[in-house]
Design brief:
Helix 1 (38-47) packs across helix 3 (61-81) and helix 6 (214-225) runs antiparallel to helix 7 (232-245). The protein is 14% helix and 42% strand. The chain contains seven helices and 27 strands. The strands form four sheets. The protein has an 18-stranded antiparallel β-sheet that branches. A three-stranded mixed β-sheet has the order 1-3-2. It has a three-stranded mixed β-sheet with strand order 4-6-5, with helices on one face.
Length: 599
């Protein structure tokens, strides 16, 4: 009975490689003589210590002879991995006759350097799978007659385990017995399977908290795992929720090895707290909107229950006039499980000064939102919102724009990453019944946005990202509501190639006035190069209309390309876009710099 080599044993650990041979050593060069089987040749090349260490020449001829003598046994797993279970390799001097023995230390010492060596492989017959038996479960999918490749057997075993675990069987196990019949050039495989019982999660445990209330962390994890059947995906989502909570810099999930007395499966999350206070700064740039600088101070565990307080100051500038400077001072507070309820209380307030091409605004805004998760991917939220301030046309008189409203939102997210998604969907619906105290007008802004990410190769290297958004202002005309409540399009997060908020209806002076409906769409192809770099090509389109149910009066389209540098905190992006449908005041191109994808 033979043990199959693991698929990873061919990725031999790389030893440090010197760029130049060490003076006084015995330089050599080794190559693999092609066998005619490309896959085998590649494995032999990767598995060969003689090739991998040739820049670290042995100290003398005896050392090189020892390295040559060990080579055949080191290459045996490469043959077996491709099904050549009787394959052999021999090392000989380059140009020597077939069947020549490996050179001795004496011969090596007498040769000029660098010594040319050849790895000559004799694959022999490729063995095939003869019989496949599974004991204890449904047959594991392997077909007789397939090449007896180690990777094929291991992949079938891994797929069976993944299937059982996806069915809610956390204790699934499988062992294999492999017999190689050299006379028949065949392999027999018997799987001893133990899928184990289906089980629900036990209440999770959290270890490693110091200053954070462990009960809060346990409740966050339990929201994902409560009463659900076991799933590896749920464990990963609970771990992500704990990381998103804020105070933890690392979270490791440790699954149990047996069910508890009630037949439930235990999971323990080991957490590591990180510094609770942090100062951050970001910068962004758009050619038409100018430079934006943001600085923030954050406390991630304000009162010991993972409360997050963030105070942020931002300044941006439109054009070159100082009196057109924009500023914002805001504070946000997040409290998990307010008053013991299974949700999050989110309080936001801000002092704003906006001097845009579309309007001027001075305001104080505030909102109190209660959010709760429903199911695995939905989050619903609702709460009051209000504004006290003044707004008006650019450079013109400001009128009071006081309002109150009830913000309601629903979010769906099953993407695989918050910062760099490569598959899944994101949906968001916002409905905010509002009343303008200054204009005695009730109105309802409604907006729905969806994005999806399609991974063409399964490794996140080539991703097609799609986004669409539609909005409407119900029960009012655009002129009936404060200007900041209207719809605008254009800019880095909307339609690239056009200035910020420049798409849509205009007033008599040619300034954007906002509308009562909006439609936007984006198509972006993202391609990664190497480990940290990437490029994108995109087309954006959007329009704003005056009527609530007339999405656009004129569609604008922009197209461009960009580069990405991927970091641990998200991609840094630089895009350049051109407007394909020109409009008054639009430039020939727009440049957009920032952190994170456009959507």
């Amino acid at each position: 009975m033979l043990a199959l080599p693991g698929a990873s044993r061919l990725a031999a650990q790389e030893a440090p490689v010197a760029t130049e041979p060490v003076p006084g050593n015995l330089p050599y060069r080794a190559t693999v003589v092609p066998t005619g089987v490309e896959e085998l040749d590649s494995l032999l090349q990767a598995a060969s210590p003689l090739i991998r260490l040739q820049e670290r020449a042995p100290t003398d001829a005896l050392g090189l002879a020892a390295r040559i003598g060990a080579e055949p046994d080191r290459l045996r797993p490469a043959f077996e991995s491709e099904g050549f279970w009787a394959g052999q390799a021999q090392v000989a001097l380059a140009g020597s006759p077939p069947g020549s023995p490996p050179p001795t230390a004496e011969q090596l010492a007498a040769l000029p350097t660098p010594i040319a060596l050849e790895i000559r492989a004799t694959p022999g017959t490729r063995y095939t799978l003869r019989s496949i038996n599974t004991e204890g479960a449904a047959p594991i999918l392997l077909r007789p007659g397939q090449p007896a490749r180690a990777e094929t057997v291991l992949a079938a075993e891994t797929a069976a385990l993944a299937t059982w675990r996806a069915e809610g069987r956390p204790l699934a196990r499988v062992e294999r017995r492999v017999t190689v019949d050299h006379g028949a050039a065949a392999m027999d495989v018997t799987f001893l399977a133990a899928p184990g019982p289906r089980a629900t999660f036990a209440p999770p445990s959290v270890a490693g908290t110091v200053a954070v209330n462990p009960e809060v962390a346990q409740r966050v994890a339990a929201l994902r795992l409560r009463s659900w059947h076991y799933s590896p995906g749920l464990v990963a989502e609970a771990r992500a929720d704990l990381l998103a909570l804020g105070p933890f810099g690392a979270v490791r999930a440790e699954e149990g090895t047996a069910l508890d007395e009630e037949g439930r499966f235990p999971v323990t999350f080991h957490v590591t707290e990180r510094p609770f206070r942090a100062i951050t700064a970001t910068a962004a740039y758009e050619t038409n909107f100018g430079l934006a600088l943001t600085g923030a101070w954050e406390h991630r565990n304000l009162f010991g229950n993972a409360e997050r307080l963030r105070i942020e100051a931002a300044i941006s500038r439109l054009g070159e006039s100082f009196d057109r400077t924009n500023a914002r001072l805001s504070a946000s507070y997040r409290r998990p499980f307010p008053l013991g309820f299974p949700g999050t209380l989110v309080v936001n307030t801000a002092i704003l000064r906006e001097r845009l091409d579309s309007y001027d605004r001075d305001a104080i805004t505030a909102s109190i939102l209660y959010e709760q998760r429903f199911g695995r991917h939905w989050t619903l939220g609702a709460g009051p919102t209000g504004e006290i301030g003044r707004s008006g046309p650019p450079g013109g008189p400001l009128r009071p724009s006081n309002l109150i409203g009830l913000a309601t939102q629903a979010r769906f997210d099953n993407t695989n990453s918050a910062l760099d998604p490569t598959r899944g969907w994101r949906l968001r619906f916002d409905v905010t019944p509002s009343y303008s105290l200054s204009r005695a007008q009730a109105y309802v802004p409604v907006r729905a946005t969806a994005s999806t990410y399609i991974d063409f190769q399964g490794a996140g290297r080539t991703v097609l990202a799609l986004r669409g958004s539609i909005g409407s202002l119900l029960n009012a005309q655009a002129e009936d509501v404060p200007v900041a409540q209207r719809f605008f399009a254009g800019g880095g997060g909307s339609v690239r190639g056009y200035g910020f908020q420049t798409i849509g209806p205009r007033d008599a002076q040619g300034r954007p006035r906002g509308g009562a409906s909006i439609i936007e769409t984006s198509v972006e192809l993202r391609q990664r190069f190497g480990s940290n770099f990437g490029g994108v090509a995109f087309v954006d389109a959007g329009g704003v209309g005056l009527e609530p149910f007339t999405p656009t009066d004129a569609l604008r389209v922009g197209a461009g390309v960009g580069v990405r540098y991927y970091t641990a905190f998200g991609p840094v992006r630089a895009d350049i876009a051109m407007p394909l449908v020109r409009q008054p005041g639009s430039g020939n191109f727009g440049i957009y710099l920032g952190i994170g994808h456009a959507f």
